Model the fold of this input.
Amino acid sequence: MEWVIVIGVVVVLAIFVIGIYNRLVGLRQNVRQGVADIDAQLRQRHDLIPNLVETVKGYASHETDTLEQVTEARNRAASGQVSSSDEAQLKIALDRLLALSENYPDLKANVNFQELQRELANTEDKLAAARRALNAAVSRFNTARESFPAILFAGALGFQEADFHRLDDSEKGTVDQVPQVSF
Done:
């Protein structure tokens, strides 16, 4: 009779640990998806930049300093060894590029420029949303991992704490071939 009770307790405990494991796996996958979503948005941002630069070149060819700064910032951000400061410099250079439209009314009215500007703004919004989603996923994962009774098994099952700052690692901005718009 004692063996039946011991076996029953072991089976219940095993089912309980399997449930904790499966829940943590699902939450960890949400964190990984959040990182991948940010990579996708950064890739889209980096794909739009050369087209935006080419469009502006057609109207503001003597603004070479600004155009070169944007291109250099984009190339640094797309190098694969990016830091958050590279992404910040890219954002500043993009803002400067978009500000050029104020000096060129024809550029400001250009349909291609407006569409690229809209796409870039939309991508920035999606990127911000992806960052918020990642932070929420990390929070849910860490909370589940550190809650009782999961904390008793999480480390032994190989679940490490997810890092909110992992965002920097995800901003690699590795870019595939980009379609070019030329004038």
About this structure: Confidence is low (pLDDT under 50) at residues 165-183. The longest helix spans residues 2-59.
